[in-house]
Amino acid sequence: MTRTSLDQADEPRTISGGHLVARALRAEGIDTIFTLCGGHIIDIYDGCVDEGIEVVDVRHEQVAAHAADGYARITGRPGCAVVTAGPGTTDAVTGVANAFRAESPMLLIGGQGALAQHKMGSLQDLPHVDMLGPITKFAATVPRTERVADMVSMAFRECYHGAPGPSFLEIPRDVLDARVPEEDARVPRSYRASTRSAGDPAAIERLADLLTRAERPCVLLGGQVWTCRATDAAVELVRELTVPAFMNGAGRGTLPPDDPLHFQLARRHAFGHADLIVVVGTPFDFRMGYGRRLSPEATVVQIDLDYRTVGRNRDVDLGIVGDAGAVLDAVRQACSGRTGNGAAGRKQWVQELREVETAAHRKRLPRLRSDARPIDPYRLVHEIDEFLTEDSIYIGDGGDVVTFSGQVVRPKAPGHWMDPGPLGTLGVGVPFAMAAKLARPEAEVVCLFGDGAFSLTGWDFETMVRFGLPFVGIVGNNSSMNQIRYGQTAKYGAERGRVGNTLGDVPFSEFARMLGGHGEEVHDPAEIGPALRRARESGKPSLVNVWLDPDVYAPGTMNQTMYK
């Protein structure tokens, strides 16, 4: 029997699970997904084409997850990676774990065998939710096609519960491929509440009292200052109250390098002599010596998005849970209502720290300008610092060589420093560069790799070429996993110091050229700057392979607690 046009008009319009995913992503503001293809997830691609979402296909799922993490850091919006079931999802675990420790909001969508084949041994079937649960803020399976968009929005909401973090959603193949009437499938579009808590008003007033009375205050501006887009609030408070500022992680660049209250090398002196230390958006983890680097005589205040972080590993005199920008702005306003804010009496304290800072820089200056061959890592990172412009996003991906850069490289603006974060994951460089260039095509992206770190995800250099994403890559090459080598040598002696950590002498410039990029080898320190400029001018993804002295270690490497 032939159906009439009237019969067809009466039929409800239907939509597939994959298209519901795409609609939900678009409603969330997602304009790019990072993925490696698999049969379980292709209907999502079809939906993304219809919704105008760019599909960036990479060569390894770890890269997809890292890129989603990096995209969130750059844009302030959650990133999204889509991977297939089984090994596709397990390959992405490292990227999710890194985002979890770095408090980066992203959604990983993983495929799964059909619900109709549950526990039957379908292709690539694994208990993904059980595996991802401990390293996400939310992990679940979508049980029905009608629930797809609803659960995508649910997963995104959970990314912002407390401190941000990743979520995971598993979608079985038959749920993804099935079609349901559009009227039965809700696509949430307005479901976000403000998360900008300014903290307890009484605590705000108390911090204002402490700041106005302190003679030697300092503040550490951590990653949450950038996560909360709190740059303006932080800068205004620091300048109005004349509070010396130190920055770490994504908080670097909050103050420009030439600001009189920007400090980098005097941190130990400040933490040992301050009478008030305000720590914003930084946990007392290994990077802070678990809080033991702060003077026991100082009054310590901690501001964080996550209640569980405040006072962990070290007692605090005042803890405030809230958005860094909202809290700092409220404190500044509370201080402005007082007769004096204490700023006038801090000139001597600021001068003391500036003298310490200047002395530390002068002590290091001969190595920053060293003409030694093999090249001193300090010379390399100094050249990078000189090379960066006001619009250069700097990415560090490595161990010992990136530890050097943390002491020398100064991003010129907020949001222009990216590193893996406290998980210390190697291999983030290429995916972070990919995300940064896609999100900010007008910006220059500069990435320093250790030779070991680049090797982990370096094949996606080809993805950068394929998508036309130029960046300046520098490999600090010492043919070693040098951060580990130092510890082994210190513990077991030089005769066993190279077991399991020695790499081949790889000319990475040839790798770059083979894949269609720009590459150069540098053995002479005088050629670092010219080579970086040629890489910039090439307009291509590039690798400048700089041969470093393998027997020189960063102070941060030698002082790591794991070697004590």
UniProtKB/TrEMBL annotation:
Regions annotated as coiled coil: none
Residues in Thiamine pyrophosphate enzyme TPP-binding domain copies: 397-546
Domain (Thiamine pyrophosphate enzyme N-terminal TPP-binding): residue spans on this chain: 16-125
Keywords: Metal-binding, Thiamine pyrophosphate
Pfam families: TPP_enzyme_C, TPP_enzyme_M, TPP_enzyme_N
Domain Thiamine pyrophosphate enzyme central: residue ranges: 204-330
Family named by the database record: Belongs to the TPP enzyme family.
Protein name in the entry: Thiamine pyrophosphate-binding protein
